[in-house]
Amino acid sequence: MDVIRLLAIRETPLSVDEVVAAVGDHAAGGTTLFIGTVRDLDEGRGVDLLSYSAHPSAEAELRRVAEKVAADFPVTALAAVHRVGDLELGDIAVIVAVACPHRGEAFAASRRLIDDLKHEVPIWKNQRFTDGSAEWVGAC
């Protein structure tokens, strides 16, 4: 069975329950879950809205990142979903979950998964601030 159970980039709201269900595994002694949400402040500036955009290759890159994590850690199940489009304060932008035989491995694999996703998958964030200004984050 493939340990990569769920990978997606979606325009619709993300489901924590779906991700948790995807990584349920009797071989896992530890399961970690990371939920990234839209916050109201970034570097001292008030945020009103975020808009995420993804390159057409983003899902393939997400799979590449997930496969590397699964190869480097004793992962029994893995899931990652990221939202695109306009998100409001409190909306879920990204969810990653990893199940491993032990908690330390699960924490390490989950940390690698979210860090590599943010650094390597071509998803860009446009932040709109309360002062009317905006900036792109992660765009080259």
How many β-strand stretches?
9
Summing up helix and strand content along with how strands pair, one would put the structural category as: alpha+beta
The ordered string of helix (H) and strand (E) elements is: EHEEEHEEEHEE
Unreliable stretches: none
Number of individual domains: 1
Instruction: Tell me, briefly, the overall form.
Output: elongated
CATH level 1 class label: Alpha Beta
Architecture (CATH level 2) name: Alpha-Beta Complex
Mean of all residue-level pLDDT scores: 95
Task: Report the sheet-strand fraction.
Answer: 35-45%
For the record, what is the CATH homologous superfamily label?
Molybdopterin biosynthesis MoaE subunit
Characterize the largest beta sheet: strand count, sense, and whether it forms a barrel.
5 strands, antiparallel
Gyration radius over CA: 15 Å
Overview of this structure, please?
With 140 residues, the chain is an alpha+beta fold. Helix content is 29%, strand content 41%. The strands form 2 sheets. Strands 3, 4, 6, 8 and 9 form a 5-stranded antiparallel sheet that branches. The protein has a 4-stranded mixed sheet with strand order 1-5-7-2, with helices on both faces. A hairpin with a 2-residue loop joins β3 and β4. α2 packs antiparallel against α3.
What does the secondary structure layout of this molecule look like, with pairings?
Blueprint: E1 4-10, H1 16-22, E2 30-37, E3 41-42, E4 45-54, H2 58-72, E5 77-83, E6 85-88, E7 92-100, H3 103-120, E8 123-129, E9 134-137
Parallel strand pairs: 1-5
Antiparallel strand pairs: 2-7, 3-4, 4-6, 4-8, 5-7, 8-9
Helix pairs in contact: 2-3
